[in-house]
Amino acid sequence: MTGYGLAQWVLYFFIYSFLGWVWESCLVSVQQHRWVNRGFLNGPFLPIYGFGAVAILLFTWPVQNNTLLVFAAGMLGATLLEYVTGYSMEKLFHVRYWDYSRFRWNLNGYICVVASLCWGVFSILLVRVLQPPVAGLVRGLSPLGAGLLALVLALGMTADLIVSMREAMDMRSLLNALSESKRRIARLQKRLEMTAAFTQLDWEQSRQAEAVRSAKKGFAQRLQALREERKTLLRMIAARLEEMRFDRRRSPERLESEMQILKSELRAMESRTDKMYQRAARHLRRNPYAVSRKHGEAMQDMKNLLRDE
């Protein structure tokens, strides 16, 4: 239909994935005042741009001589792809890698009118300006050369995808675990406050620990401070529970239940290894604007560990 072979389509995908990575990495780096290797993958590719470019070329092929129809067809095709991709990734990873909620006329935060109009403009630039020289470059390769290059790039991206998926799944696991940890500790604190509330000194110690963590420089140091802060809080809760063993008004069964919750939280904290945090941190560094509607506080805790890096 388009006159391009499979290997050529694959190469177009990688070329535009690379150009998209260059664009977003430079843009986000300027905004963040540091170099950001932007994207889901570790390598220099942003697949959403590759898939978007391929989708635009396919959608606009029948109308490529009509600029207005190129704008409309490219805008609709890319917008549909962006919505499906954003929705699917949030369902899988519990994270939004882009969020248009702050823009007017957005649909569930995955797409918005401004982004769709940008896709339309990009469609015209792609079809009229970028694709002709890119197509000439790719067509200059021999069929064997194009096929081998496409295969090597595909294998490399597959390996990268496996590593990046593990990082994303580690981040999802940590967000789930940190959110559940907050809920468990909050339940214990609430129960304790009903009978023997934390003293002002306890709260001062907790705030001082948080201040010490905030003052730390570097991810590893902040992570260690966070662990110590959580352990201190759990020791305080354990001490309160131990004191309550001598309170006859306190149900032994309820005390045992609360102690089991505390032990469960200690085991869960030990299961969250430094390597899990490091892999999740690498992923989050590449996606500094990622948000999580389901685990908002936990996501902010992760971002705080990376602050000022």
Question: Could you describe the 3D structure shown?
Answer:
It is a single chain. A hairpin with a 3-residue loop joins strand 1 and strand 2 (111-112). The protein is mainly alpha-helical. The protein is 75% helix and 1% strand. The radius of gyration is 25 Å and the shape is elongated. It has 2 domains: 6-140, no CATH class; 164-305. The chain has helices spanning 6-32, 47-60, 67-93, 113-139, 143-195, 200-215, 219-244, 252-271, 274-286, 296-305, and strands spanning 106-107, 111-112. Helix 1 (6-32) packs across helix 2 (47-60), helix 3 crosses helix 4 (113-139) and helix 5 (143-195) packs across helix 10 (296-305). It has a two-stranded antiparallel ribbon with strand order 1-2.
Write the layout of secondary structure elements.
Elements: H1 6-32, H2 47-60, H3 67-93, E1 106-107, E2 111-112, H4 113-139, H5 143-195, H6 200-215, H7 219-244, H8 252-271, H9 274-286, H10 296-305
Antiparallel strand pairs: 1-2
Number of strands: 2
Strand order of the largest sheet: 1-2
- The class by helix and strand makeup works out as mainly alpha
- Give the biggest sheet: 2 strands, antiparallel
The number of helical elements comes to 10
Distance between the termini: 49 Å
Structural domain count: 2
Low-pLDDT parts are 194-204
- Per DSSP, what share of the residues sits in E-state strands of 2 or more residues? under 5%
Mean of residue pLDDT values: 85
Instruction: Name the helicity range.
Output: over 70%
Order of helices and strands: HHHEEHHHHHHH
How many whole angstroms does the radius of gyration measure? 25 Å
Shape: elongated
